[in-house]
Design a protein that fits this description.
By secondary structure, the protein is of the alpha/beta class. The chain has one domain: TIM Barrel. It has 9 helices and 8 strands. Strands 1-2-3-4-5-6-7-8 form an 8-stranded parallel β-barrel, surrounded by 6 helices. Helix 4 links the parallel strand 4 and strand 5. The mean pLDDT is about 90.
Amino acid sequence: MATKSLNERLALQLITHGATGEDILRQAEAFLRGGGRWVQLRMKEASQEEMTATGEKLLPLCREYDAVLIVNDRPEIACAIGADGVHLGKNDASPEEARKLLGPEAVIGCTANTLEDIRELAKSEIDYIGLGPYRFTTTKKNLSPVLGTEGYRTILENLYREGISLPVVAIGGIEREDIPLLRKCGVRYFAASGSLVRSAFPERTTREWLTEIEKGRETESAF
């Protein structure tokens, strides 16, 4: 199920993190059972064959829950398995290349760390920005400078003033307790990896995250 704009059902994205395809599938199933409806397949160390095979198993699981599946970094795999889109890092394929391959209905997101990054990306036909990291995280190598609460506030206020309306997904070391603070900064969408994957009860943890996000809608800022 592709979407050209994010909405409330996509407020939380799981970024998979595991040693094997079986790990990934277990993570995703628990997340989906807990109410999550947006999965990013991320397997940085996997071969193309292994990632494709995992994606082919993950896609029908996402379809069963009417969830969106995007692929990290590799638009060719997203195309091969029929995923809903792709998330591109700073050193990956360009949004234009991904759009040409995946088509006009694909969900295309891009990583950003600064206001200047977003200004440049806003010139492309993309659907959201993954802005981060919020704090230090061990799930990603070559980490960009952390933003913290004030970093998000400053960037989102400037986007509002400049009329840049791309949805921003906060990412990088976020815990459930951070959601109210980030909501006050204008964040509407959240991505999580370690906090959900390492939980002893990932299904319940997903529900708790979604409940916290829903509560924040009542007090979110105007920008």
